[in-house]
Write the structure tokens for this entry.
Amino acid sequence: MFSQTNTADSGLPILLERYKPIPRQAIDPACLSLAKQWLSTCQNGHRRCDEKFDTAGPSRLVELRGDVIKLVLNPEESTRGSYVALSHCWGGSQPLKTTLKSLAGFREQIPANDLPRTFSDAIYITRALGFSHIWIDSLCIVQDDALDWEQQSSKMASIYSNAELVLAGVSAGSANEGFLRKPRQSCERTISLGAKGSRTSFTYRIVPDSHDFIEEPLYKRGWTLQERLCARRFLAYGNWEMSWECKESSCCEHHGNNLDSDLNSQLEGSFGARMDTTNPQAFAQLWSTRVVYPYCRRLLTEKKDTPIAISALAARFHSQYQGTYLAGLWKEDLCKTLLWFSKPPGCRSSFFAPTWSWMSLELPHAIDFDPTVMSNHDAEETLVYNVQTEVTPSTTNPYGPVSSGTIHLVGILISASLEAGPSPEGLWEGTKLSTLRHDVSGTISYIDTPIVRTDVRLMDGTEDSTTKRKEKQEDSSGGPYPVMLLPIFRFSWGVTGLLLGRSATCVGAYERIGMFDYLAEVKFESMRKDYKACDMTLV
């Protein structure tokens, strides 16, 4: 709460600071002054925020020197990192972009009158903060050149990590909206109190709920997650306020100083600081909870971009932890991160991804990970061993899409039957597992997608009935569904693992169809005596 008058004159205690209104538009000079203050404080006092990802930089930048705006190739500012990178929503068809036809002309001049409002706003702020170069994806990547797009998109980690500042038009849902002149959401109220015959006005601010921030247009888009989390410094212009995030501080107009830690966590902020301080043993939890969890709930215009739009973060993780990336998971913690689940069931992705990866489901969708496993509870026993992997990228980007992905391991396969809930298309509440010889009641099942029964050919040439993920055009079949249980971890409270079906496309291999949890330890100990460990392949 803030005082609008002199509390000493009113007879009220001097407890409150004087009221300073938050500007109704971000174009207000007070906002620019505050942004300059945040940037200067960070540049002059935050040693950790000066650390760059590597020496590589963008191949092109938009140069803003003088009155001419133009595209420049391999500028010195690229390797020095003295440029701003824009994070923004395209909003459907992009009104201005570099193509093979326009490339030569843009190297001479980009007409200022042709710039969409979001670009104009970003250029205004870039110049006002003292920078002469900005990276804008639609202008700095040749949009109709597949090779250039592949090469530049694979450098996103360097582009956003090395930028001196990432400028985010958070409130703009398209390139045409802009973010500086939009009226802001009002969150201030005034009350009047009386004492000793006089009245004093007080203004209080209603702090926006974290949901209001998460619902900002930019934070709904899949591509922009890595643009934010890779940034060393992130200046955001939202519907409510302007905010700042870097490795050493988080500030905003409403709070003034540091953001509330819970709110900061929900906004995925201060990610760079967490990467710097997280030990290698806990990095799977950081990847699962701070990257995969929010990413899977965001929108992508092109579903095939799912692996690419997160590849910059994978590159950052590899740089930090030297892990082996496997289509959205990490080899060093593969057994843990295999235990993701989908609730409710989703749909198969339209592009190829191995079934053991969460990328095999179409996004946006609610993907989560077994909380007990991710909270670093020590398992009493790991039930799979000799784990080997083979993943083949389909492009030059080692963190992008893949053409194949297999896991070879040794473990126990338990034959079981799955009874569906009210409808194979529904939430699968009430699904039940059973085996011929053992009671597995109480075990929880999570199905990745709707499933169907099918017949597959075995290695010996015979056929067997199994269960697979349902194609969109396939009719659902009734249960029960023959499945295999692959136990992965044994805890004091029970066993958790994967639900598998035989592969119809790779003879002798298995495909993931879901996950099971809370298989009672006592029941499992009696079951495992009836099964021998065997070699298997997951595809």
Summary: The CA atoms of residues 57 and 79 lie 5 Å apart. The radius of gyration is 27 Å. The chain has three domains: 46-182+211-276, 279-378, 410-538. The first helix runs from residue 7 to 10.
